[in-house]
Design goal:
heterodimer, A: 113 residues, six-stranded mixed β-sheet, 54% strand, globular, B: 113 residues, mainly beta, four-stranded antiparallel β-sheet
Amino acid sequence: QKEVEQDPGPLSVPEGAIVSLNCTYSNSAFQYFMWYRQYSRKGPELLMYTYSSGNKEDGRFTAQVDKSSKYISLFIRDSQPSDSATYLCAMSRYTGANSKLTFGKGITLSVRP
Amino acid sequence: DARVTQTPRHKVTEMGQEVTMRCQPILGHNTVFWYRQTMMQGLELLAYFRNRAPLDDSGMPKDRFSAEMPDATLATLKIQPSEPRDSAVYFCASGTQVGETQYFGPGTRLLVL
């Protein structure tokens, strides 16, 4: 079993839909949780960053972490065609800039106009 | 606009040939990471350096891969000899001790025939 599991997808939704992306993990030492967005033929870029359990909201994006269940989610409200990309969850024991990240395999999201 | 640069962007080579990929981290970033991304395995950490010293290269096949930081502005990843199974996109990322995120370069797309 991999340390981080992510729904494989792909996922296709109509514009305006609410999107829910999820990851589970097995290593209870993970404390920092991130979502990266990767457009085709580009490098991943940070979308959301949370520490420990709880919710964090940024515009149309909400990240949730439930450490007791070892489960994290990313919600996208009012999805737009520009949200079409691959979304990767990532986790680390220490702050993400300076330590090893463990990634999920990513899920490709397509938002249909 | 500070960004991580990688060269070459694309590389096609024949099995058995040496491949060298280069990365220029963002100025002032003291941690540099090498990742490999494939459809099957997703994004995997190969090695990373802090203040130019190798910290962890456990993800790297030691018999054919080597990673170095000759100076603070250059990181290299070398494959010798290359094999078809090395075909992937190789990403370099850099970060700082206090930042939240690693910043990824655009990747080197390697195809070994």
